[in-house]
Amino acid sequence: MFGFLKKKESASIAKDRLTIAIMSDRGQGFNYPFMDELKKEIIAVVKKYIEVRNIDITKEINGDFEALSIDVELNKHLD
Amino acid sequence: MGIVIAVISGKGGVGKTTATANIGLGIAINGKKCVVVDFDIGQRNLDMILGLENRVVYDMVQVMDGEANLKQALIKSKVNPNLHFLAASQTKDKSVLDSQKVKKLVSDLKEEFDFIILDAPAGIESGYEHTIEFADAAIVVVNPEVSSIRDADRAIGILDSKSAKVKNGEEVLKWLIINRIVANMVQSGEMLRSEDILEILSIKLIGKIPEDRGVIDASNQGKPIVLDKKSIAGQAYVRIASRLCGKKVDMKNVEISDDGLFKKIAGIFK
């Protein structure tokens, strides 16, 4: 009757593996439908003030916290 | 004005079509006018589960293309006059669907019925996106098993980004059905518990369906399992349909079976 103590229950292994896999799925390749449009508009605004080479927008999910991360890459010759 | 509910899963073979048929019939039994629409173009199956495969004359693609009108294409169920069915096209492929045509079909159905249940194709391709685009709510069907849950999460992600409601800043309702629960496997820790699945997917539960051999028997005959009053899966679908119709029905814990408990107690005295 103590057979169930022998090994870790597979359901809890499944839960741990799923939690990690889904976190990584959600983080990757997730795009809002308006992402390209948003990118274009940000480039247009920033370009008014400074030379922009590229803009990269990613959605990040850490636990309950979600954020849009916007990386603005500038042209090198500017200080 | 009816409510449009898409039944989705991500992974195939989890019981999506069975769920659609039984929820539809369950709603009809509750006295509401309901239509179930098969959106799985090229892989028509809902007609078989409902036992209506011999009555299909026109399909939903012909309605969308104006080759037939809705009245001609809608098939009334033999078992309940409140239930109607619209078949998928078997000859065309998923690419025939077009947003504007889907929108028109869905809004025409909303005029006629209280509930419009759309059976989505498996996968997360264009056919799936067209099914969820104009839905007010989605029922996500999973099995308590890793690949089904992971794929469901992807399908939910697409729902949250492609739904017309979400794009308008409104909320698309989402409910989970956990199908094919084996109580004694949950008890022995070999199957994920419903609380764990809800936590992983962060979604609300609308019902738990126990594994039931009667489901295959029912589909063999084209008689949805809700008609079998003794079936545990049938009873679970009746409870889900009643909840959708606004009745308060307590969640039955199908993860503890009397059978499992009895065996455990008997096991101690072995």
Model description:
The complex is a heterodimer of chains A (79) and B (270). Chain A has a two-stranded antiparallel sheet with strand order 1-2. Chain A has a domain at 32-79. By secondary structure, chain A is of the alpha+beta class. Chain A contains 2 helices and 2 strands. In chain A, a hairpin with a 2-residue loop joins strand 1 and strand 2. Chain B has 270 residues and is of the alpha/beta class. Chain B has a single domain (3-268), classed as Rossmann fold (3-Layer(aba) Sandwich), CATH 3.40.50.300. Chain B is built from 13 helices and 8 strands. Chain B has helices spanning 16-29, 46-50, 60-64, 70-73, 99-112, 126-133, 146-162, 164-167, 183-187, 194-201, 214-221, 232-244, 258-268; strands spanning 3-8, 34-38, 75-76, 83-86, 115-119, 137-142, 173-181, 204-210. In chain B, a hairpin with a 6-residue loop joins strand 3 (75-76) and strand 4. The longest helix of chain B is centred in the middle third of the chain and has 17 residues, at 146-162. The radius of gyration of chain B is 18 Å and the shape is globular. The model of chain B has no long low-confidence stretch (mean pLDDT 94).
Q: Helix and strand layout, with pairings?
A:
The complex is a heterodimer of chains A (79) and B (270).
Chain A: H1 10-27, H2 35-47, E1 52-62, E2 65-74
Antiparallel strand pairs in A: 1-2
Chain B: E1 3-8, H1 16-29, E2 34-38, H2 46-50, H3 60-64, H4 70-73, E3 75-76, E4 83-86, H5 99-112, E5 115-119, H6 126-133, E6 137-142, H7 146-162, H8 164-167, E7 173-181, H9 183-187, H10 194-201, E8 204-210, H11 214-221, H12 232-244, H13 258-268
Parallel strand pairs in B: 1-5, 1-6, 2-4, 2-5, 6-7, 7-8
Antiparallel strand pairs in B: 3-4
Helix pairs in contact in B: 1-12
> Helical residue percent of chain B?
40-55%
Count of DSSP E strands of chain A? Answer: 2
Order of helices and strands of chain A: HHEE
Which protein chains are joined by the largest interface, and how many residues does each one contribute?
A-B, 19 and 22 residues
Task: Give the rounded overall mean pLDDT of chain A.
Answer: 78
* CATH topology title of chain B: Rossmann fold
Q: Count up the helices of chain A.
A: 2
Low-confidence stretches of chain A: none
Alpha-carbon distance between the two ends of chain A: 73 Å
**Beta-strand percentage of chain A?**
25-35%
Structural class of chain A: alpha+beta
